[in-house]
Amino acid sequence: MYVSESVGFIISNTGRKLSQALTARFQPRDITSEQWSVLKKLAEEDGITQKELSNRIEKDPTNVTRILDQLERKGWIRRAANREDRRSFLTHITEAGRELSKELTPIEAQFVEQMLHGLSAQDVAVLRGVFKQINKNIDIRH
């Protein structure tokens, strides 16, 4: 079997292409798909610790720190002392970040619609189920 037929290769290649294509759509707003995932989560759940954020978006804490640094420099998030734990910070989306999130949400929705073109609702349901099971299997074995 050729490497291009490997399920692992197909998943990895598709993920990379998705990330690159979404980043290209966001380029005029100076945000990457990786930064977007963090900003979007903060728009949904504001005022959480970096550790909670890392867990919820399933990204390495070191990468989340780097992304938060970038978002903070751009004025889209801010960090505040956590009164309950002086060793951590609470992460908040700023008004500028919230406005950007509102602006990018329909762009992402249109991208997802284009990405799923030609797939039935049943196909999409199966796709979601398959990827959830793969993620579950990885978490169990990790």
Unreliable parts:
none
Number of helices: 6
Shape: globular
The largest sheet, given as strand count, sense and whether it forms a barrel, is:
3 strands, antiparallel
Q: What is the CA-based Rg, rounded?
A: 17 Å
State the secondary-structure class.
Answer: mainly alpha
For the secondary structure, the number of strands is 3
Provide the CATH superfamily of the domain at 12-105.
Winged helix-like DNA-binding domain superfamily/Winged helix DNA-binding domain
- In CATH, the architecture of the domain at 12-105 is Orthogonal Bundle
Given this structure, which CATH class of the domain at 12-105 is correct? Mainly Alpha
Instruction: Tell me the CATH topology of the domain at 12-105.
Output: Arc Repressor Mutant, subunit A
Q: What share of the residues does DSSP label as strand, in percent?
A: 5-15%
Q: Strands of the largest sheet, in order across it?
A: 1-3-2
The whole-number mean of residue pLDDT values reads 93
Task: Provide a short characterization of the protein structure.
The protein has a domain at 12-105: Winged helix-like DNA-binding domain superfamily/Winged helix DNA-binding domain (Arc Repressor Mutant, subunit A, Orthogonal Bundle), CATH 1.10.10. It contains six helices and three strands, in the order ααβααββαα.
